[in-house]
Amino acid sequence: MACLLILNVGACHAQDNITANNTQTDYQSENLYAAAGDAQTPVTTGNVITAAKTVKDYAEKNNAIPSTVQVGSQNVTKEQFTYLMAQAILNINRDGKTTTTISPVTVSQAPNSTGKATGTLKKSNYITLASSVANFIKTNGRLPNYATTVIGKINPESIAYTMSRILAFYNDNKRLPNYVTVKNIQPTNSGSSSTTQGDTSNSGLTQYLVATANCQVNDPSIQALASQLTKGLASTWDKAKAIFNWVRDNIDYNFYYNTRYGAVGTLKYRTANCCDHAHLVVALARAAGLPARYVHGICTFSSGTYGHVWAELYVDGKWYSADATSSRNSLGVINSWNTATATILGTYASLPF
């Protein structure tokens, strides 16, 4: 039971990082994970420039890159936005046109992000960096762990911030800067494993307790059902299990792409794909005071390999898988697809599609 198909899957390269001095672009295969029927459409270079200003301001206030970014009329992940910014810089450098379109691709997180380099990159250096990052993503389907440049290794968060500064400069001055100063932004740890403790501080969990896009935690129907399902239950585990079991047993699976109904609509119509199943699980859990988040991955089912979304619930210091799309699954246990071979593309407080 999956909601997003993988298209154009090539041989996966084992490369872990990039060297910005390497300008080779003749790759034999690409590993692009794209959602069939995905609502994400091409954006203009101008859309990316406008969004980059927002990202720059956010990064300078929070010392982090936002997990999702609105580009034009759609949301993309920060990993996707790094790719879009790299392509936008290359487009501007090539012809100066802001109307040139860029197609978003699905980009997974860097598995072992590292690099603390700071300093100044000349225009030729950052153009090479943008080209290398874009080519790495197109080849590997994920962010690099770091980029090696003339000033040393730069981590993905710092790469994104640097690119946002370049595009913000272009927005204000209608030209690319002669140089850019790289500042170190350490990557945030959002976690990807169903049993990884991750950030368990109060501040780290707050984002997993509030209403987000299509997760209407404060809606009366969500609040009422969450209260009904958890009434009289003392333990966090029992509350999480009651919510998971209800969604699994009362919402029929229906194949379509991305979000269609959201949590409230799913509760109303009692039918959903994987995205909307996750929306309802997450909304009910958060309404009951249980931290909950979304996971997006590439999963192998008996029928084939697909993009898939499921929820995770935080119980007693650990994250537990909550894939309510199949009666074969239970809280913390997935039997409907092969967890040993799954590729995690992202973990989110707010699902961006």
Word description of this protein:
The chain is of the alpha+beta class and 353 residues long. The protein folds into two domains: 179 residues, no CATH class; 147 residues, C8orf32 fold (Roll), CATH 3.10.620.30. Helix content is 35%, strand content 22%. It is built from nine helices and 17 strands. The strands form six sheets. Strands 1, 3, 14, 15, 16 and 17 form a six-stranded antiparallel sheet that branches. It has a three-stranded mixed sheet with strand order 2-9-10. Strand 14 and strand 15 form a beta hairpin. Helix 2 packs across helix 3 and helix 6 crosses helix 9. The chain is elongated, with a radius of gyration of 21 Å. The relative contact order is 0.15. About 13% of the residues have low confidence. This is Transglutaminase-like domain-containing protein. It comes from Methanothermobacter tenebrarum. InterPro entries: Papain-like_cys_pep_sf (IPR038765), Pseudomurein-binding_repeat (IPR018975), Transglutaminase-like (IPR002931). Pfam families: PMBR, Transglut_core.
Topology:
Layout: E1 4-9, E2 18-19, E3 31-35, E4 43-44, H1 45-62, E5 68-71, E6 74-77, H2 78-95, E7 101-102, E8 119-122, H3 123-140, E9 147-149, E10 152-154, H4 156-173, E11 179-182, H5 202-206, H6 220-230, H7 236-250, E12 252-253, H8 262-269, E13 271-272, H9 274-287, E14 292-301, E15 304-315, E16 318-322, E17 343-348
Parallel strand pairs: 2-9, 12-13
Antiparallel strand pairs: 1-3, 1-15, 4-7, 5-6, 8-11, 9-10, 14-15, 14-17, 15-16
Helix pairs in contact: 1-2, 1-4, 2-3, 2-4, 6-9, 7-9, 8-9
